[in-house]
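Service request form, structural biology core

Requester: graduate student, group of Dr. S.
Request type: structure prediction, single chain
Budget code: on file
Notes: please return the result as structure tokens.

Sequence provided:
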Amino acid sequence: MEPLKAGMVSRTAAGPIAVVGAGPVGLLAACLVSRHHPVCRVGEAIRAAPPEKDPRLYALSPVSLNLLERLGIYTELGIERCRVFSELEIWIYRHRTRLRFSATDIGGGLLGATVWARDLLSVLEACAVASGITCLEAHPEGIVRTGYGWKLPGSGMENAPVLVVAEGGGSRLRERQGIPLDIHDYGESAVTGWCAVEREGGDVLRQVFTPWGPLGLLPAPGGGLSFVWSMPNPVAHAWQARGTQEWAALIEEATEGLYGRITLPDPPRGFPLRRQVARRYVAERFALVGDAAHVIHPFAGQGLNLGFLDAGVLAARLAQALDRPGLVRWDAAIGAYDRHRRGANARFLSGLEAIRLFFRGQDPLGWRDQALAILARHRLLRRPWVEVAAGHGGRRHLR
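Core staff response, request fulfilled:
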């Protein structure tokens, strides 16, 4: 793991930058910022749940993996806890055309890797400890604004120059800053779980647009599939009462037998879906990252990757601020972060909504099938789609 560089943290007399949030985005932000400036975390330390209590699986883009590698975390995960994939396959239920996006469409390499949430949190927590990040197990409600920065509860610190908030979609600190939200209820629920399969189907992520809603299938480290099925609320609520055998039969039907016999050890879980976007990501020496800034539809599996890009860009802007004189440098840094990430995320969200509606709507004239067939034949047309899936759009702002 890369140590702090000698002399870096002595360039400013300000107190530590405070990071609120114990999830992967908050931990990554804290670890990246700590390479250039002292950091203090506010909130309870991560205590990884046992496997049966946390079935979440993340699909990390190459850019997210690169951010982890800067901290030595990607290597630490290893092949046992990280399953690399280089292809993404999309098709519409019972339609002939299957569209494959490959890493070769953008010059080779990989499209990403899947990792269990519990493993990602474990290595990020270990990185935070190794980086010397102070953790105050205090309630964030006690954080108050001072003349210079932020006063942290139970610490005696009154000059934290920047407050980074990664509390999630229900952030109270965002509310206290008066940052408004744009909210759209999809009228859908995401049903998630893990299943064992008869045939693995290779290291390929798949998205099937079914009559019951889009079904995302992620190959899991160690075997089997994690799935995220976005269903209209009436359908999701009706199916929540079904047993695991009925769910297995439905997944077999939706995947048209691709994985052979499917077995669910536990009933899937569901949660409501909505789009939630903060109209601004920053206030005076205050920055939102991850779900605190934006909550998106999960069908493309990019929510965490956008949060990691937020963390990476903010850390880069704060590092640049250390080379500027005066107190205004912090506001300039988070202002630059807001301009870069809010615009990039808005463009991504617009594209995501367009793709979702394209596959969701009726296609009486067969134009959708024709579009998929054209994409399947022409690599150059697929390239922009693959670059978005690989997270390349935000890479230039990480420097």
